């Protein structure tokens, strides 16, 4: 599994050119991409500046020598590269397994190109086996949970080490089991319309390129 993540991470950084402004996603697959980018920065003197999507990725970027900036300096990125929890046949995604979905969506939306990197296990025909992460404000989260139940989801407040999980934005996550998500656009729209929902982990029509590990090699899926 780690070898697959490493392969797609190394493949993805080939899309990064000198002078680019780069969005760095979050998660264990992204770790290898950040590491590989750091190696290019060091070996080739590649001149890039990056905005990261989580405090953990910030630390990795610093560790691997990638200069960081923020949206007060630049509002458009040339490329963003991120992992995913599920990718369907239409390249619609579920993200947020690590709780970074809000910043990830802001960064992906600010990028001219958004490339997704996954191992083979993330490819599905229909989204929904992975419970959909939904970021919500803490106040009144119980109300939002009840409304999501009425929409057919089974929300579970995310915990970590016995405590409520708090995102980098100070919010909570509801992991919402839906049987199958056949219409990601409709599901996203129903959820985002609820007062208290900050963002959903459905990334709809955001990527046209997914790099997937394939038997010790990588494969590019395009739309
Ligand atoms: O919030 C986390 C992100 O959406 C990750 O990109 C996603 O969960 C995939 O992570 P991993 O590469 O660790 O499976």
What would you note in describing this structure?
- The structure is a single chain.
- This protein is α/β, with parallel strands linked by helices and 223 residues long.
- Helices cover 29% and strands 28% of the residues.
- It has six helices and 15 strands.
- The chain has a six-stranded mixed sheet, with helices on both faces. It has a four-stranded antiparallel sheet with strand order 8-11-7-12.
- A hairpin with a 5-residue loop joins strand 4 (86-87) and strand 5.
- The longest helix is centred in the first third of the chain and has 17 residues, at 28-44.
- The radius of gyration is 17 Å and the shape is globular.
- The model has no long low-confidence stretch (mean pLDDT 97).
- The structure holds ribose-5-phosphate.
- Ribose-5-phosphate binds at residues 25-29, 82-85, 95-101, 104.
- Residues 25-29, 82-85, 95-101, 104 line the site of ribose-5-phosphate (R5P).
Rounded to an integer in angstroms, the radius of gyration calculated over CA atoms is 17 Å
From the spread of the alpha carbons, the general shape counts as globular
**Helicity range of the residues?**
25-40%
CATH architecture of the largest domain: 3-Layer(aba) Sandwich
Strand-pairing-aware structural class: alpha/beta
Largest sheet: 6 strands, mixed
Termini distance? 25 Å
Hetero groups bound? ribose-5-phosphate
CATH class of the largest domain, anyone? Alpha Beta
Low-confidence stretches: none
- Report the order of strands and helices: HEHEHEEEHEEHEEEEHEEEE
Strand order of the largest sheet: 2-1-3-6-14-15
Number of strands: 15
Number of helices: 6
CATH topology heading of the largest domain: Rossmann fold
Estimated share of beta-strand residues: 25-35%
> What is the total domain count?
2
């Amino acid at each position: 599994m780690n070898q697959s993540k490493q392969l797609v991470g190394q493949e993805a950084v080939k899309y990064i050119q000198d002078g680019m402004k780069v969005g760095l996603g979050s998660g264990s697959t992204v770790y290898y991409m950040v590491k590989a980018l750091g190696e290019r920065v060091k070996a080739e003197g590649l001149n890039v500046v990056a905005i990261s999507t989580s405090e953990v990725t910030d630390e990795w970027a610093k560790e691997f020598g990638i200069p960081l900036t923020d949206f007060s300096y630049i509002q458009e990125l040339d490329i963003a590269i991120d992992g995913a929890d599920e990718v369907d046949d239409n390249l619609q995604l579920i993200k947020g397994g690590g709780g970074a979905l809000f910043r990830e969506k802001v960064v992906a939306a600010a990028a001219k190109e958004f490339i997704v990197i996954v191992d083979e296990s993330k490819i599905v025909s229909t989204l929904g086996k992975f419970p959909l992460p939904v970021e919500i404000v803490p106040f009144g989260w119980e109300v939002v949970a009840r409304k999501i139940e009425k929409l057919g989801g089974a929300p579970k407040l995310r915990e970590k080490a016995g405590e409520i999980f708090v995102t980098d934005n100070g919010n909570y996550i509801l992991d919402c089991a839906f049987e199958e998500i056949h219409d990601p656009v409709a599901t996203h729209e129903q959820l985002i319309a609820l007062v208290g929902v900050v963002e959903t982990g459905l990334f709809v029509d955001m990527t046209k390129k997914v790099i997937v590990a394939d038997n010790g090699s990588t494969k590019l899926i395009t739309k």
